[in-house]
TrEMBL record:
Membrane-traversing stretches: 35-56, 68-85, 105-127, 160-179
Descriptive protein name: Cytochrome B
InterPro entries (alphabetical): Cyt_b561_bac/Ni-Hgenase (IPR011577), Cytochrome_b561_oxidase (IPR052168), Di-haem_cyt_TM (IPR016174)
Cofactor(s) the protein requires to work: heme b
Predominant place of localization: membrane
Family statement drawn from the similarity comment of this UniProt entry: Belongs to the cytochrome b561 family.
Membrane disposition: Multi-pass membrane protein
Cytochrome b561 bacterial/Ni-hydrogenase domain span: 32-197
A Pfam family matched in the record: Ni_hydr_CYTB
Lineage: Bacteria, Pseudomonadati, Pseudomonadota, Betaproteobacteria, Burkholderiales
Length: 202
């Protein structure tokens, strides 16, 4: 079966034949898979919580909250590796309505860049903290092992790399959320509803 064909087979016959349905594992030209949809919102919740905790920690440091931040980052990483692989190896569903092709290219590039950033930023944060000799503690007294030994120069480099990545990431995320709001409130199409699970006819 080609990737463009839907793998969600729903075959309902008037003669009363049994309805066959198969779970759609991968995205295709016709729609997002339920796995993409669930993981998209899990990642969105994790990222927005991480940003909120980072802001709270910059106002008043709190070691318990820092452990929660480490835990969220630890959950985010493997989910993001899967999502980046899934995003780059399956078709992105066709855009809704008659959008400007440049906007489609920009929005898809931003979405893929966000997925890549979700893989690279946790690695940069992990290397930066390890090189700075900071233990990465999780709630319950668990620790994430350090991949490298403390080194001040390496810590500075990883910290700069993290900041270089984090700034365009936040800008890209703002652009992404702006695009979703524009589709929903101005263009009044079903792009956001499709990402919330609505089956949309193309
Ligand atoms: C409130 C926050 C967010 C909203 C409202 C939102 C909305 C959307 C919508 C409507 C789509 C579907 C676009 C289409 O039809 O092509 C989408 C796709 C996507 N979004 Fe978001 N998004 C949010 C947060 C995030 C975050 C935090 C990330 C990652 C850091 C992200 C990454 C992606 C990616 C990679 C896609 C492409 C589909 C996929 O592979 O999951 N989004 N988003």
């Amino acid at each position: 079966m080609s990737k463009l064909q839907t793998s969600y087979v729903s075959d309902s016959r008037s003669d009363g034949e049994r309805v066959k349905s198969r779970f759609q594992v991968r995205d295709n030209g016709l729609g997002f898979s339920p796995i993409t949809i669930v993981l998209h919102w899990v990642v969105a919740a994790l990222v927005l919580s991480i940003i909120a905790i980072e802001i709270a920690l910059s106002v008043s440091p709190n070691s318990e909250l820092a452990k929660v931040l480490n835990l969220l980052g630890t959950i985010l990483f493997p989910v993001s590796v899967y999502r980046f692989w899934a995003r780059t190896t399956s078709y992105h569903p066709l855009p809704l309505g008659t959008p400007n092709p440049v906007e489609v290219m920009v929005s898809r590039s931003v979405a893929t860049a966000l997925a890549l950033a979700m893989v690279l930023l946790p690695i940069a944060a992990w290397l930066s903290k390890s090189a700075a000799g900071l233990p990465i503690e999780l709630p319950g007294g668990l620790f994430i092992p350090a991949p490298i030994s403390p080194d001040r120069q390496a810590a500075r480099i990883f910290d700069v790399l993290f900041k270089i990545g984090a700034t365009p990431f936040v800008i890209g995320l703002a652009l992404h959320i702006f695009g979703a709001c524009k589709n929903h409130f101005v263009l009044k199409n079903d792009a956001l509803k499709r990402m919330l699970g609505k089956r949309v006819e193309l």
